[in-house]
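Data availability (excerpt). The following record was deposited with the supplementary files.
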Amino acid sequence: MRVAEGTLAEIKAATDIVDLISSYLQLQKKGKSFLSLCPFHDDSNPSFDVDPERQRYRCWSCGQHGDVFQFLIEQEKISFMEAAELLAERAGIQFQPAAPDSGNHLSSGDKKHVLAVLTWSRDLFSKVLASPLGKGASEYFENRGFSPKIIESFRLGFCPEGFEFLRDMARRNSVPEELLLKAGLLQKSERGSLYEPFRNRVMFPIHDVLGRVIGFGGRVLDDSKPKYRNSPETSVFQKRRNLFALEQAKKATADGQPLVVVEGYTDVLMAHQAGFCGVVAGLGTALTEGQARLLRRYSTQVVLLYDGDESGKKAVDGAAEVCLAVGLEVRVAWLPQGQDPCDVIRSEGEEGFRRRVEGARDYFDDLFDGADRLSERERATLAAKCLDKVRCVEDLLVRDALTRRVADELSLSESAVRGWLIQRKDGMAERRKQAAQGEVVKRQSPQELAGLALLREALNFTQQAITIVDSLQSTELPTRAQRLIFEAVRTNLEQGGSRKGDDVTLMIEDPEARTLAHLLLADEPVSDDESRERVTASIEYFRRQRAENDLARSRTELNRVLNEDGDEGKRDGVLGDYLDRLRAEVDRRRCGREGVVNEQGTEGGQT
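Predicted structure:
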């Protein structure tokens, strides 16, 4: 498709780049330009510069630059023609191709036509709600306390009961059935028959940040299951990349207010009705990293407002992790158990709801609440939970500050906390990432990692502790803390091995060693087989180190004797000792190699 001459220039002139980009990002005026975090790379300091005079943008960090067309292409992952058409529609300009296009009619199912049928269906559902067919749905909204204004603002609707209502209306309006399928308004059963998934449901249209309908959430009016149903993934709708009501909520962040995340659509509606317009919700799943990055476009802070029961706390922990990972400051406000925002606003009024949101606490402050009453083991377990969140943080300075804070708040040794953090299961990948980013960190040697692996199993498994103590000397462990833990394990075995891991830690007086022992006990448990594999591999590492050290000492002694004028018999003895050790090392390596070959059946894939 070609665009008529002059149309692109007209579209570009009619589009204010600051206005367009501010619908995606939170812009801050600085001099003649506007700054924001760059949406095209992981940006911790605002490096994205929007120039209103030149109608251009540039990121001074990653180098991305362009005009209104390019921004929309990159942001929405669409073609140039789709970007031009969207901007023309936004500016109220008739988008006229230079020549007719015979191949792109409604049945083609591209994004433009899917969006068109979703808009058509939204308007249809809205009309049904206002008709006699929508009486039950209207009563549902009325009983929930929603005003006509909020119903109109969010374009709520109703899809009536009946197996072919939508298809009948589509036929009357010349809407191809194929498009209903591609928009997720029709679905195929396992038997291949078509059905309408939203029948007899109140409809919540889901819009993107440009205000386009991209999908629906539907709630039943009776006790049918599932209670809520969302549109399936389509060419225009991906749950992980969208949030309910973000198009309205983003406007509330212009004055620096945080975005508030709640769990349900009706929670959002009631909050907006009460004047809290910065409230959004997920789309029926746990908060994803894509949604967290979407939140960060518009605010650096997020408040998680969830139910205070156990499932709510788990949801908050998961949401906090993805939000921290993308650089958001996370605060938490709890609802009374069993209540949602609708209940709170009705019982406590708008002012009560405001107090809860404005009184939201820092996520880590909330975790540390009551930590002074915990036992050492409980504090170590809490530290492990906190550090699992800390290690997800991308900003190096923030991660370092949080690590120190965990140690201080929980009265734990900072060096032990850092050691545990680095040796986590994905520690090697994390250190490679840190090295690539230029971060200077204390590297743990293979010897330290092997020692930690052995001590973790010794504290958790008595049988493994016997194997480890029989195979190792404390002097072979690289740090004082590790040696003290090893001695406590050995003492426990000598006294009958009756103490559990928690009790063994009580035998350790050194604070750093005791903290490390508690952290090792707080690690996730593994199976007996995996534990044996860890112990075997780590003991083999120390045995190999022992043999290599003996060989090195023998080589040093041989060189010393050869360079001295002395007894020839002594030289022969030292040389024989060195050769014996060398043969033993060669045999050990050959056995290891043959073991690998035999296990694989052939070496290098050859027979």
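Summary of structural features: The chain has a mean pLDDT of 81.
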